[in-house]
Fold this sequence. Notes:
By secondary structure, this protein is an alpha+beta fold. It has two domains: 7-105, Glutamine synthetase, N-terminal domain (Ubiquitin-like (UB roll), Roll), CATH 3.10.20; 128-476, Creatine Kinase, Chain A, domain 2, CATH 3.30.590. 32% of the residues lie in helices and 21% in strands. Strands 7, 10, 11, 12, 13, 14, 15, 16, 17 and 18 form a ten-stranded mixed beta sheet that branches. Helix 4 packs across helix 5, helix 5 runs antiparallel to helix 8 (377-393) and helix 6 (301-321) crosses helix 10 (424-433). The longest helix is centred in the middle third of the chain and has 21 residues, at 237-257. The relative contact order is 0.12. The mean pLDDT is 93.
Amino acid sequence: MSDIKTPKDVLELAKAKGAVMVDLRFIDLPGVWQHTSVPIHRLEVDSFEDGFGFDGSSIRGYQPINASDMLIVPDATTAKMDPFTKHPTLVLICDIVDPITREPYARDPRYIAKKAEAYLKQTGIADTCYVGPEAEFFVFDDVRYSSAPHAQFYQVDSVEAVWNTGEGSGPDGSGRNLGYKIPFKGGYFPVMPTDTLMDLRTDISLILMELGYEVEVQHHEVATAGQCEIDVAFDKLLVTADQLMWFKYVVKNVARQNDKVATFMPKPMYGDNGSGMHVHQSLWKDGKPLFAGSGYAGMSEMALHYMGGILKHAPAICALTNPTINSYRRLVPGYEAPVNLAYSSRNRSASIRIPTYSQSPKSKRIEARFPDSSGNPYLAFAAMLMAGLDGIQNKIDPGDPFDKDLYSLSPEELSGVPTVPHSLEGALEALEADHEFLLKGDVFTKDILDEWTSLKRSAEIDPFRLRPTPLEYELYFSI
């Protein structure tokens, strides 16, 4: 995907593009890109070994203030020019290093993804894990919210939203209503003018391609009010996690350039589909796919065991693949998201699907459908790989496939089918009870898992529990 391999290549790219700044990017524990910038003359070949010093005490999930000095070390292979900055700016994704020991920082999520890839090779099972996420998102024309002690509300708007059919002055500011609104669950796939975001998605796609990513398809998604999907080709686990961070960055900035706002929040509004992130996965060794075979849906025994591992550990890995309170507004039994821990060929109501578009062995893969993109991709992808490997190592049987529509089954028929947790608290409790598979090969550490659960409870669950919601007023004010 990129010809940039060495520090010398990076310096030549910077000179050719006239870069005046270097933007050094890294990820915090919850999964948000952070950055610091230096003038281009400060970037030398030695910088890729020596790194740049920074204070990690204010980065969520990083060091306490009494041990906050850290190094940020650029990865030469990640060099790209920023498509949005006013002045030519070179972007380098970085790893975090301890300045004293010169060892990789154990809480750096990118290091965890690297360790997951190394552990895969160490097992001898495979040498490559390919990952292909499909991160859905909404593009709104307006967003407002407040969480004051005396008032709680949110409000989003879109010129194509169904609730604007009777408005005389929509969010486009025209003072007129030109119709063609998208009904609830009616956004898959009307053409323009109903689909108002075709050009915006193309703008996003063109920039992604300029950055070196292969765009496969773009389209409007099911929900009203601007839900979209753009799929980018799969790649190796670490590269794909880097790619997803670029993807979110491009989507948000193109929306802003068009006077709109994009969000990857899983469930930004009630009454219509939320945004998931279906994650395609496959294992390869010596350039050969390992998931093709003579089993169910043309899958190998290894692939079935891989699915067995993910299904068994799904409640625990949900703490990393669906790591926000809002994630569980989407994962509600009986609605649009696949919450039942079952697998199937073609059936999109199962939490793991086996795509059947092609019978080529190279196309054989599994698709985990319950994750969303609200968290940290380095941790989420690593956790799914570790669960799948545990399934292979312990020959975990995924059970029988469910080829029926799981949404249409009665409670009695579903009684024996396990589900994902119903809340973030439930997922964290599952992770605390089931995490030994993540500790293999020192990929995850007890320290990082403890920090993750502590941060989630203190920064998200506890503040949420203290606040009444508007629905509670509707239900209880008159009691």
